């Protein structure tokens, strides 16, 4: 059942990839939109399978995918954000496997906002990826709070932090 939810609903992504009338930024934006729709469906299916509360979890795109610059062959950089009040492993498993089964390269993490921000304080790749948080599904409030906190933390570091 999980496999069919992920692969069948990926038809929009395939249609964009096969559309030879799209090029450049238009193609990237169309591919991003189609991928967003596919992932929103996979997330919804995963949520219903696991019974997770939509107020306690958010799926966000980060990095290049967070910017909306998805190109054919790009990996999907995703963060499954949770509030720490429950074990997110069953949801993560239900979410990641259909993506892998579809043959898509996946950069993924499962973290609370505090965990993501703590890692960003010591890892420049994580810090810069969190500056591109884009809400996909679940709690928009959690996504917005993470982006706000990451942006504030980045600005507070100041230019001298890198010298």
Helix content: 55-70%
The pLDDT mean sits at: 87
Structural class: alpha+beta
Strand percent estimate:
5-15%
Global geometry:
globular
Task: Specify the biggest β-sheet.
Answer: 4 strands, mixed
Distance between the termini: 52 Å
Seen as an oligomer or otherwise, the chain set is single chain
Rounded to an integer in angstroms, the radius of gyration calculated over CA atoms is 16 Å
Instruction: Tell me the strand order in the biggest sheet.
Output: 3-2-1-4
Total E-strand runs: 4
Low-confidence runs of at least 5 consecutive residues: 1-8, 159-163
Structural descriptors:
single chain, about 160 residues, alpha+beta, four-stranded mixed β-sheet, disordered N terminus
Describe this entry's structure for a reader:
The chain is α+β, with helices and mostly antiparallel strands. 56% of the residues lie in helices and 14% in strands. Strands 3-2-1-4 form a 4-stranded mixed sheet, sandwiched between helices. Helix 3 crosses helix 5 (89-101). It is globular. The chain starts with a helix and ends in a 6-residue tail after the last helix.
State the gist of this model.
The chain has 163 residues and is of the alpha+beta class.
Itemize the secondary structure elements and their pairings.
Blueprint: H1 2-8, H2 11-18, H3 24-50, E1 57-61, H4 63-67, E2 76-82, H5 89-101, E3 106-111, H6 113-120, H7 124-129, E4 134-138, H8 140-157
Parallel strand pairs: 2-3
Antiparallel strand pairs: 1-2, 1-4
